[in-house]
Design a protein that fits this description.
Elements lengths: L16 H8 L6 H16 L6 H29 L1 H4 L21 H26 L2 H15 L13 H21 L5 H20 L4 H6 L5 H4 L2 H25 L13 H14 L7 H24 L3
Helix pairs in contact: 2-3, 2-7, 2-8, 2-13, 3-5, 3-7, 5-6, 6-7, 7-8, 8-11, 8-13, 11-12, 12-13
């Protein structure tokens, strides 16, 4: 049965519509986008670009709007497919969706309208920001919105076709790239060097979250990697992604593109190692995986925080 350590949402919990709709965006998970923006901005400043606070604030606001819209629409499309309703092994609040539709807090129509409204507002803001800093941002932002929408939206449903990990990797790397571009106003390799380890660690979060959702997703016809592969093989992907993140970081530190002190941002690999051990033991027992998911979150966010602080500390 689903883990209920944290109570799932009920309509009576929300005293006003603003509180309700804000909670529907799953705000705690928006920290992933805030961290990606921070890496992009700090990477640009580290390479000698003058920090522009107002541009950074606009960038972060629009990126958060896109992520919020994608979260809400993911709930909508997962409700249509039936996967969230069938998910009795969910580990709320990490897997199985926000439960707003399933628990009657919002209807499917309200969820769809809200999700698309958030994306439309973000796209209008993106047009304005692209007019300020350059047309390349328009391409970056449009691709990001498309990936976020197509991740769960039918008929594409990229996650259900085994492409979810690639979507998350590209999406979060794109956030770092976009945040860097707004500060730099030209394309650069810097955000790829800075952002790839974080994007890999965020991909690991998606990957491990799919283990508790595996049975429901399979029943709903979602054929992501954790469904397609035998559990023993699927488990091996998690430490591989974490190792690639560390190797990427070490490679560019060795080349001199990142300061030697950036190696401290590899320390959160300790969290990933612990999560790997838990996943290996309990891959078939979803109720035991919540600590591994929490460790995965700790790995990605602490890596981003440490690397951001190092680049700010070492900026010219």
């Amino acid at each position: 049965m689903a883990s209920r350590d944290i109570l799932e949402p009920e309509k009576a919990q929300y005293s006003n519509p603003i509180q309700l709709y804000f909670a529907a965006t799953r705000p705690a998970f928006l920290l992933a986008t805030l961290a990606a923006c921070s890496l992009g901005i700090a990477g640009a400043v580290y390479s000698g670009v003058t920090f522009q606070f107002s541009m950074a604030l606009i960038t972060i606001s629009l990126a958060l709007l896109v992520h919020a819209g994608v979260n809400v629409l993911n709930d909508y499309f997962d409700a249509l497919s039936g996967t969230d309703a069938m998910n009795n092994e969910r580990l709320y609040p990490f897997t199985g969706g926000s439960r707003f539709i399933q628990n009657g807090v919002l209807t499917t129509s309200q969820t769809a309208y809200f999700g698309y409204a958030l994306l439309i507002i973000a796209m209008l803001g993106g047009l304005y920001l692209s007019w300020l800093v350059g047309a390349s941002l328009l391409a970056i932002g449009a691709l990001g919105v498309l990936i976020g929408w197509a991740y769960s939206a039918s008929p594409l449903s990229l996650n259900g076709r085994g492409l979810g990990e690639l979507c998350v990797l590209a999406g979060f790397l794109g956030i770092v790239l976009g945040a860097d571009f707004v500060q730099r106003r030209t394309l650069s390799l810097q955000p790829f060097m800075v952002g790839m380890p974080y994007a890999l660690l965020v991909t690991n979060l998606l990957f491990i979250n799919q283990f508790p959702d595996r049975k429901a997703d399979a029943a709903a016809g979602k054929r992501h990697l954790v469904v397609r592969l035998p559990l023993t093989q699927a488990v091996r992907i998690y430490p591989l992604l974490a190792m690639l993140a560390v190797l990427w970081l070490c490679y560019f530190v060795n080349l001199g593109n990142l300061p030697i002190l950036a190696l401290i941002s590899a320390l959160p690999i300790i969290f990933s190692i612990k999560a790997t051990l838990i996943l290996r033991e309990f891959a078939a027992m979803p109720a035991q995986l919540k600590p591994a998911i929490q460790l995965t979150l700790a790995a990605m966010l602490s890596h981003a925080l440490l690397l951001t602080l190092v680049m700010i500390w070492k900026m010219p």
